[in-house]
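Subgroup meeting minutes
Present: P.N., E.W., G.H.
Scribe: E.W.

1. P.N. recapped why we're keeping a running log of single-chain structure predictions: easier to compare across weeks, and new members can see raw inputs and outputs side by side.
2. G.H. added today's entry (101 aa).
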Amino acid sequence: MTVYNGEITKLDLKSYEYNDNLVEYYLATLKASKIGPQIKRKSDYRDEDVKVVNRAVVRISDNTCENLNLQVGDKISLNGGVVDDKFSGAMIKRSTIVLKV
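Output recorded in log:
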């Protein structure tokens, strides 16, 4: 799954303890995002495969978020997998190649 040009409307720091380690991550809520299948080459991109969604929730590592200095209002693109989270519903996790656009 690829997210194109999603605007961050909310950015929350979350944490939990796992095996005596504190795990921190950010939940970013995106609005008016274009979402499509993950492609290997730019030539594989097709407009008909891309859908616009009003709202998307993305889990981003604290390291990535802090390195990019992400803030509300920033636009980002990323790859990830969609999972059904028991707390947040459908969510994009395992986000990779997160870029500010």
